[in-house]
Design a protein that fits this description.
The chain starts with a helix and ends with a helix. It is mostly helical and about 200 residues long. The chain contains seven helices and no strands. The longest helix has about 45 residues. The N terminus is likely disordered. The chain has two domains: about 140 residues, no CATH class; about 60 residues, no CATH class. Helices cover about 85% and strands about 0% of the residues.
Length: about 200
């Protein structure tokens, strides 16, 4: 009985930690979910050590591949991996509440400061910083994701396709990437099986 109570306390503490972690991350990131990626990686992988580098990249990949904001999806996925459904809910609330409050306040005050020259200048200064954050996140993710020539080729092909064909459907690109990844794995499995069979026949003879 005492052990059950202890476990419940640990679970509640974990849920609070998840909530406060994402509650802290949410209001300090400008530019959307992509700008949040390096901060989430630093907090979840290096400081908290809740998940590994490869896992966080998988979380971002899945979050971008499904409907919804990448920040909300990522927080929900991470929360679920760490604390199950309660963890997912705690993380979701932590990431949404600060932004919701800020948007309500900004919406109420927008009419009074949207044409203010100082506000416009501040926003112009923030925009390139957001681009730098996204670039930093892309570089860090590439170090884990681009593990061989096939991955590099696929990445370059997708970038070129998106740049050249602006009307290209992003969902189509994601699904094509997934399909090609599955095909590459299957081909490698067949090749490895063939090599293993050749070695076996060579040992027999």
């Amino acid at each position: 009985m005492e052990m059950e109570k202890k476990n419940k306390k640990i679970n509640y503490k974990l849920l609070l930690d998840l909530f406060m972690t994402f509650f802290k991350i949410s209001p300090i990131t400008f530019g959307g979910g992509f700008a949040m990626i390096p901060i989430m990686e630093e907090e979840l992988v290096h400081k908290r050590k809740w998940i590994g580098k490869e896992e966080i990249v998988d979380v971002f990949a899945v979050s971008q591949s499904v409907p919804g904001a990448i920040a909300v999806n990522s927080a929900t996925f991470v929360g679920y991996q760490i604390g199950g459904i309660p963890g997912a809910l705690a993380s979701l609330l932590g990431i949404v509440i600060p932004t919701f409050i800020i948007i309500i306040i900004l919406g109420a005050l927008l009419a009074s400061f949207q044409h203010n020259i100082h506000v416009q200048a501040a926003l112009q200064g923030i925009r390139p910083v957001v681009v730098a954050l996204i670039g930093s996140a892309a570089y860090k993710m590439s170090r884990v994701s681009l593990v061989d020539k096939v991955c590099v080729t696929l990445c370059v092909a997708c970038i070129m396709s998106l740049l050249l064909f602006k009307s290209l459907n992003l969902i189509l690109v994601i699904f094509l990437g997934a399909a090609l990844g599955i095909m590459v794995v299957k081909v490698k499995e067949v090749q490895n099986y063939s090599l293993a069979q050749k070695k076996v026949r060579g040992e027999k003879f």
